[in-house]
Design brief:
6-stranded mixed β-sheet, 5-stranded parallel β-sheet, single chain, 723 residues, 18% strand, 26 strands
Length: 723
């Protein structure tokens, strides 16, 4: 439709038809066994007439199913307005990629874009139009379960990944590319900073921290063209996001220029009542529509009270019109008026979904995402001539997909045992399982392991232990796993700990007892193949952490780009008690942001810094060069990281900030020059009055393989004062 036709459609709609477009129902409402007198339809006061006006459905898929639902809906819709089908396609549809936190550790936006495009392709042929992804919330607290959906603690990386996900899902042209789907940036805003790391908890952020650290990734995804944004569950500055006019109308709409659809999270409108800012569902609906929420997900406030609010003069019908216009525009952008069955195709679904090509890409992504945290005396890679003991928690051999894998099938995933069989014969593997409650490891159980050469122990979390609603006050390994490692250590065999988990963990209980640690995250469909390829050196690990690992849970929130204090702990004042420090653990992480080992070694030359003047404004620009050499015996890939520090600002500045990185692959003895260019924009920050600028002064430039092992070069840079 062209714009005039769309406007004509809007003008032809009754108020009830408009309100219906603003309502999203779960797929269970479209099951045959439900009726208008029982079940959820009764609870939401739905009638057959109202069902014919509904605008979107979530959580149901399958080409044949969705074609049938759409066909039946169009037959009942007076104006023939098609349904939107939405779902949580977070890190893959049926072919499951690593969790987002894992994918981020690849430090490769192009690979993330490719994974999103594959997820979109599978979802599109299954009839879906929208994914509730990417989640771009910045996170600093590993206690929070949804860190697994985030890409980490750094605002610069999160911006790059937000853009990559949106490009991957949406392709270049949604209307013509039927194998793309619309993206939904979530959760706006600050959802990743709940107090105490507790799910759905209050968020307390200063305006400057919100703007410098948390908002940039949302804005990046919006600037990339994300068609939807989802509100957060949390309150911010005392107001739940779904009712927060300042967030939604002033920042999202006016500042960021977002013109797409704003959708609530599941039942978030109704949650204003327990939040304590709405007395009832009617008042909650009023607050949500005034804040600019276009689609209400699953609480019935819009469906049952918007018309009444208009009649009472509490809201104007223009609020309804603007919301419905955005919903209709999204449907038009997807080409649904011309093709309401867009992309849904049973034959293509069978050919495309979970194809071998997609599984191979999932394996590659998993390999790139894994991080070698420790490798004492080069225990890894394994030799195919070694006899291996594989220790796996009972029932978790295929629990490798993570908590948000929706259509992923555990029975289709590759276990680590199956992965090892791709490299060595069955006779070379002693497979042992351990029950979660098995606190005693008996002598005869250990006796079976006396003739093995090396032990590979799978430890970490079950998928139930991370994800939404899975906050943890303790982020250690389960006690049974810790005791198991202690018992295995008595065998005096090298131990390789392979971690399957959804968050950074406190590994201090086992760090001295294991020789190597491979962080595999929840790697997805091809888990076992990818892990085995790294264990045997078919793939050299290259992943780097995008979230710090603590030495104790008492350190969290823990992040590399913390502000300095008036009493900082330094190498020169270690004995002083009256500093910003703990008495029982040092301030540093167990494994820092950016950390990740390789089977080879990279040498960094001293950095060379060149200052030049911008031809337009004569302000300083910086070029930093460093030569990287592969000094090892195998090919490898290094992520070269550039950080800065503004030594004196108008407000306290972080002790370091990632500004650029480059991923380089080198053969043995090969060298390459890595160059970075910085200008004024790379140094600007938010001031007390919320203006954004930077002052002339001294800056530290830092290059290295992670956020702690850095060469530092201090320069004085001249910038003009902002007017």
């Amino acid at each position: 439709m062209n714009s005039n036709q769309l406007k004509q459609l809007l003008s032809n709609m009754t108020r009830e038809e408009k309100i219906g477009q603003m309502v999203q129902l779960a797929g269970e409402f479209y099951k045959e066994e439900d009726s208008e007198n029982t079940g959820p339809m009764h609870e939401m006061n739905l009638s057959a007439e109202k069902m014919a006006t509904i605008g979107s459905v979530l959580g149901i898929s399958g080409a044949q199913t969705l074609i049938a639902i759409q066909k039946e809906h169009l037959a009942k819709s007076r104006l023939g307005i098609p349904l939107l089908f939405m779902a949580d396609v977070i890190h893959g549809y049926r072919t499951i990629f690593p969790i987002s936190l894992g994918m981020a550790c690849a430090w490769d936006p192009d690979l993330i874009e490719e994974s999103a495009a594959i997820a979109a392709k599978e979802a599109a042929v299954a009839g879906l139009h929208v994914t509730f992804a990417p989640m771009v919330d910045l996170v600093r607290d590993a206690r929070w379960g949804r860190v697994m959906e985030s890409t980490g603690e750094d605002p610069y990386l999160n911006q790059l990944y937000a853009r990559a996900f949106v490009r991957g899902y949406q392709g270049k042209n949604l209307a013509t590319d039927k194998l793309s789907i619309a993206a939904c940036i979530k959760h706006f805003a600050g959802y990743g900073a709940p107090v105490a790391g507790r799910e759905y908890n209050t968020v307390e952020l200063s305006e400057r921290t919100l703007r410098d650290m948390y908002l940039p990734a949302y804005q990046a995804g919006i600037d990339e063209g994300s068609k939807l944004v989802m509100t957060a569950f949390n309150s911010l500055d005392g107001v739940p996001a779904t009712a927060n006019k300042r967030l939604m109308r002033d920042i999202l709409r006016k500042e960021f220029g977002f013109e797409g659809v704003l959708i609530s999270d599941w039942a978030a409108v109704g949650e204003m009542i327990p939040h304590g800012i709405a007395e009832n569902l009617k008042e909650a609906g009023k607050l949500a529509i005034e804040a600019g929420v276009d689609i209400e997900m699953m609480t019935g406030a819009y469906l049952n009270y918007l018309s009444e609010l208009i009649d009472e003069g509490e809201i104007g019908e223009t609020l309804i019109d603007e919301a419905v216009w955005r919903v209709l525009t999204l449907k038009n952008d997807l080409g649904l008026f011309e093709d309401p069955y867009r992309g849904a195709n049973s034959a293509e679904e069978k050919a495309i979904v979970f194809s071998q090509e997609h599984r191979e890409k999932a394996r590659e992504m998993a390999e790139e995402s894994m991080v070698l945290l420790k490798n004492k005396e080069q225990v890894l890679p394994l030799s195919i001539h070694q006899k291996v003991a594989l220790i796996v928690p009972k029932g978790q051999a295929k629990d490798v997909l993570g908590a948000w894998s929706w259509k992923g099938q555990q029975n289709e995933s590759v276990s680590l045992y199956e992965g090892l069989l791709q490299h060595i014969p069955k006779e070379s593997i002693v497979l042992k399982t351990v029950a979660d409650a098995q606190k005693e490891i008996k002598a005869d159980w250990l006796a079976d392991l006396t003739d093995v050469d090396i032990i590979v122990a799978v430890v970490g979390e079950s998928s139930y232990m991370s994800g939404e609603g899975a906050s943890r006050s303790k982020i250690k390994l389960p006690s049974e796993q810790i005791q198991l490692i202690k018992k295995l250590r008595t065998l005096d065999k090298p131990i390789v700990a392979t971690l399957f988990n959804g968050r950074p963990l406190d590994l201090t209980d086992i760090i001295q007892d294991v020789d190597s640690i491979l962080e595999a995250w929840f790697p997805g469909t091809e888990a076992g193949s990818a892990v085995a390829n790294l264990l045997y050196g078919k793939k050299n690990p290259s992943g780097k952490l995008t979230m710090s690992f603590p030495k104790a849970v008492g350190q969290v929130p823990l992040y590399y780009n913390q502000d300095n204090t008036g009493r900082p702990l330094t190498a020169l004042n270690q004995e002083d008690k009256f500093l910003s420090r703990y008495l029982d653990v040092d301030n540093s992480p167990l494994f820092p942001f950016g950390h990740g080992l390789s089977y080879t070694h990279f040498k960094y030359s001293p950095m060379e810094v060149t200052l030049t003047k911008s031809p337009t404004n004569q302000e300083d620009e910086v070029k930093i060069e460093v030569t990287i050499t592969n000094n090892g015996k195998v090919a490898g890939t290094e992520v070269v990281q550039l950080y800065i520090r503004d030594k004196v600002g108008k407000v306290v500045r972080p002790i370091k900030e990632l500004k650029k990185f480059k991923k380089v692959s080198l053969e043995p003895s090969e060298s390459t020059v890595v160059a970075f260019n910085l200008n004024k924009l790379n140094f600007e920050y938010t001031h007390q009055d919320l203006s954004v600028s930077v002052e002339s002064g001294e800056f530290d430039l830092m290059i290295g393989p992670n956020s702690e092992e850095l060469e530092i070069n201090t320069v004085y840079l001249t910038f003009k004062k902002s007017e």
